[in-house]
Amino acid sequence: xxxxxxxxxxxxxxxxxxxxxxxxxxxxxxxxxxxxxxxxxxxxxxxxxxxxxxxxxxxxxxxxxxxxxxxxxxxxxxxxxxxxxxxxxxxxxxxxxxxxxxxxxxxxxxxxxxxxxxxxxxxxxxxxxxxxxxxxxxxxxxxxxxxxxxxxxxxxxxxxxxxxxxxxxxxxxxxxxxxxxxxxxxxxxxxxxxxx
Length: 196
Hints:
Blueprint: E1 2-7, H1 14-24, E2 27-31, H2 32-39, H3 45-54, H4 56-59, H5 62-71, H6 73-99, E3 106-110, E4 125-130, H7 133-144, H8 148-157, H9 161-166, E5 170-173, H10 178-188
Parallel strand pairs: 1-3, 1-4, 2-3, 4-5
């Protein structure tokens, strides 16, 4: 079984790439954002630590938590220091389970911050889903209703194209048609069974 990280900036089209992979390969796919929600549910060790740090009323209110983190960058670092290791631990447990499942050939984890969070040391391959800035902005404006300024401001907080490329083993240029991206995936995964 191969462990693959999928990363790339906002608006690059990681979701469409993963949808294709999910439909065509014997795989498990985990989105780091979803795992982060899972590991901080009430009753978990992560929830307990976050409650000690910020208080239960803040943890249970997404708007309050977001405001608190936006107002204090050192608090964000402390929260990340609790959540990121819990996410990694969860994923490694799931990876171990998947390794015992004959129906799973590929294990994917997706996040914009995989490179920054040290996943390059964990995965067998890091894939970078690339799209040019103009394409990303227009996608974000169409899909999420962002203004051009908002889309650009978020893009500027993420790694540069060069940083993503330097931290990756394989690049999918998702600026053009999806079929071109799918072809690149089929070629990269030619040693793995396609299910559909």
